[in-house]
Amino acid sequence: MQLKESGEMYLETIYVLSQKSSYVRAIDVGEKMGYSKPSVSRAVGLLKEGGYITVGTDGSLNLTALGKEIASKTYERHTVLTKLFTKLGVSLDTAAADACKIEHVISDETFVALKEHLNSLK
């Protein structure tokens, strides 16, 4: 199953929420992303079918190894791009919004180069 941008966003959100709490529910994801229950329910079903998450008997959402790999990669791209853009003088809100769009389409090669450049600025 090819994961689309929206799927990556859901995985990233589950990942971020799981860093704060070991118990992540669909309702938590919906609140964080501003999506309705039916939208989240459909996405959860697709992510479960694709092998990206599991759903516990208590309703908790858990990333599989594959889901965690994609989520952490997406989150790293988001944070690195946001930092880079703010270093360039872009406001934090704009930097985060732009990073959110770019994180899904940037090549690995370009991302690594940008990450290395950011590290050289420190």
Explain the overall architecture.
With 122 residues, the chain is mainly alpha-helical. The protein has two domains: 5-69, Arc Repressor Mutant, subunit A (Orthogonal Bundle); 72-121, Diphtheria Toxin Repressor, domain 2 (Orthogonal Bundle), CATH 1.10.60. It is built from six helices and two strands; from the N terminus they run H-H-H-E-E-H-H-H. Strands 1-2 form a two-stranded antiparallel ribbon. Helix 1 crosses helix 4 (65-87) and helix 4 (65-87) crosses helix 5 (92-102). The termini are far apart. The model has no long low-confidence stretch (mean pLDDT 94).
Q: What's the story with the biggest beta sheet?
A: 2 strands, antiparallel
Strand residues, percent: under 5%
Q: What is the name of the CATH class of the largest domain?
A: Mainly Alpha
What is the structural class? mainly alpha
Number of domains: 2
Order of helices and strands: HHHEEHHH
CATH topology of the largest domain: Arc Repressor Mutant, subunit A
Within CATH, the superfamily of the largest domain carries the name: Winged helix-like DNA-binding domain superfamily/Winged helix DNA-binding domain
Keywords:
Diphtheria Toxin Repressor, domain 2; mainly alpha; 70% helix; 6 helices; 2 domains; 122 residues; two-stranded antiparallel ribbon; 5% strand; elongated; Arc Repressor Mutant, subunit A; 2 strands
Brief synopsis:
The chain is mainly α and 122 residues long. It has helices at residues 5-20, 26-33, 37-49, 65-87, 92-102, 108-121; strands at residues 53-55, 61-63. The termini are far apart.
